[in-house]
Amino acid sequence: MYISVQYLRALAALFVLLAHIGFKLEVHSINLLSSYKIGSYGVDLFFIISGFIMCLTIDKNKSTVIAFMKARFIRIIPLYWILSFVALIIFLVNPSLVNSSGGQTSIWASFTLIPNGDKYLINNGWTLSFEFFFYLVFSLFIPFGAGQKALTILALLSLSIIGLLVDTENSYFKFITSPLLLEFVMGIVAYKLIQFKRIKLIYSIVLISASLSLLFYVNGSGLESKDVIFGRALYAGLPMMMLFLGVVSIEHLMPKDRILYNIGMSSYSLYLLHPFTLSAVTVCFSLVGLMDYAYLYFFSMLLVSCLSGWVCYKFIELPIGDKIRKLSSSDFKFYNRSI
Question: DSSP string covering 47-97, please?
Answer without folding.
Answer: HHHHHHHHHHHHHHS---HHHHHHHHHHHHHHHHHHHHHHHHHHHHH-GGG
